[in-house]
User: Which sequence fits this backbone?
């Protein structure tokens, strides 16, 4: 393949050591677009991405190849950048925008050149905007979080649908102590939690409850500047409530502090726990592997001091800098966010959607998915909060994951002191990013 070098210096993130902007594979239109997506190879989601690429080729005549990667996705992108071989297109988390933009990997998006830009949700556009106010990605998929609960267990232990955090704790305790699976053994937990520090999962999980209690990781102070917010009583209360589940009530699955989502999905499917705060992307999988009559989706209850709220996130389509065919890049983005592209990505009620909630107003969720449980996630998105648009959110997620994981793993840890110390680290990072 032909390669073209940019040779343009970029602003490198503090933790990176790449001196020049990585360049894409610079493929000609005959060679097609190379599209990377953060999904497990050969998974249902990877297969849906292949369907999207095939539909794009059928509609435009432009060849496209999908590369599905999951483990160390961002590290592998850095390696490609160092070799001047970035892919043409990346479909990746909204929270990774700042990290990639700081390294000079992304082309700026001109909304006036995007077909159907006026049909894209304004809320979704917020997650495509960098700290400088410009757009470096195009919304592709959105999601909010809700509780997937073993409804058969809830009925077995005689509990109602939880309406408060006290109700939720009571249900988790019953799932832990009252043999909800009826096997005569004390081998179940209330909550299953991906609480590892890897990729910031502990922070990712806690965020929905922090937002549901009116807390914030960072508080906007105006003019694109922020102050730390984790020492605020509302945030402390949420983290402490979860510490109580780990340490006092002991309602969390064993080993949670070391588990990522891949492991936690399996823990839930194996019947080792009955309450999973997660996004809608696993709903169809759980329906298939657990049984549609055994699971229900309920909103995250308001916290004692706030609410409603939940984490909002999703994926953007990123046009990578240095492509040999920028026109083809733009055509792929146009197709991906079009009603046709969104429907392909949604994949109906089947497992493996790469579009969780559509970002195009021309797509009717109820018409594409007959499972009414999707509507719980759609309703939750109305109150969802994206991460704050600092230049690079990744360090904040990782720093907070380290602190939150520590207080869950160490039952003697003082949450207020830990969150105060976390705010100190946030202050340093905000100064580093010139965002304080």
Assistant:
């Amino acid at each position: 393949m032909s390669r073209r070098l940019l040779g343009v210096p970029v602003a490198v993130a503090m933790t990176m050591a790449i001196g020049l902007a990585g360049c894409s594979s610079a493929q000609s239109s005959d060679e097609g677009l190379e599209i990377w997506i953060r999904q497990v190879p050969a998974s249902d989601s990877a297969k849906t991405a292949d369907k999207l690429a095939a539909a794009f080729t059928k509609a435009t005549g432009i060849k496209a190849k999908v590369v599905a990667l999951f483990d160390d996705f961002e590290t592998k992108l850095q390696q490609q950048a160092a070799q001047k071989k970035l892919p043409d297109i990346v479909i990746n988390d909204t929270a990774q925008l700042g990290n990639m933009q700081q390294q000079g990997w992304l082309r700026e998006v001109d909304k006036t050149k995007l077909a159907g830009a006026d049909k894209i949700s304004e809320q979704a556009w917020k997650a495509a905007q960098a700290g400088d106010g410009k757009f470096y990605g195009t919304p592709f998929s959105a999601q909010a979080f809700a509780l997937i609960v073993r409804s058969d267990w809830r009925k077995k232990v005689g509990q109602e649908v939880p309406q408060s955090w006290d109700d939720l704790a009571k249900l988790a305790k019953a799932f832990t102590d009252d043999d909800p699976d009826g096997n005569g053994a004390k081998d179940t937990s209330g909550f299953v939690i991906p609480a590892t520090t890897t990729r910031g999962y502990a922070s990712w999980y806690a965020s929905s409850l922090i937002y549901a209690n009116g807390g914030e990781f960072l508080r906007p102070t105006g003019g694109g500047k922020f102050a730390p917010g984790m020492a605020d009583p509302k945030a402390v209360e949420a983290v402490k409530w979860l510490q109580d589940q780990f340490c006092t009530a002991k309602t969390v699955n064993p080993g949670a502090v070391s588990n990522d989502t891949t492991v936690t999905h399996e823990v839930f499917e194996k019947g080792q726990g009955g309450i999973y705060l997660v996004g809608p992307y696993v709903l169809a999988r759980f329906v298939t592997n657990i049984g549609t009559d055994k699971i229900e989706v309920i909103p995250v209850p308001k916290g004692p001091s706030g609410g409603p709220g939940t984490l909002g996130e999703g994926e953007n389509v990123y046009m990578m800098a240095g492509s040999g065919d920028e026109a083809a890049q733009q055509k792929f983005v146009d197709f991906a966010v079009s009603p046709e592209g969104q429907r392909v990505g949604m994949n109906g009620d089947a497992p493996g959607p790469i579009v969780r909630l559509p970002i195009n107003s021309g797509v009717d969720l109820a018409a594409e998915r007959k499972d009414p449980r999707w509507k719980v996630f759609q309703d939750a998105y109305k109150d969802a909060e994206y991460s704050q648009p600092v230049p690079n959110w990744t360090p904040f997620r990782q720093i907070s994951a380290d602190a939150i994981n520590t207080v869950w793993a160490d039952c003697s840890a003082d949450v207020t002191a830990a969150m105060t110390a976390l705010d100190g680290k946030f202050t340093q990072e905000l100064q580093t990013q010139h965002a304080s």
Remarks:
- The domain at 146-311+390-432 is CATH 3.40.190.10 (D-Maltodextrin-Binding Protein; domain 2).
- The two ends are 45 Å apart (CA to CA).
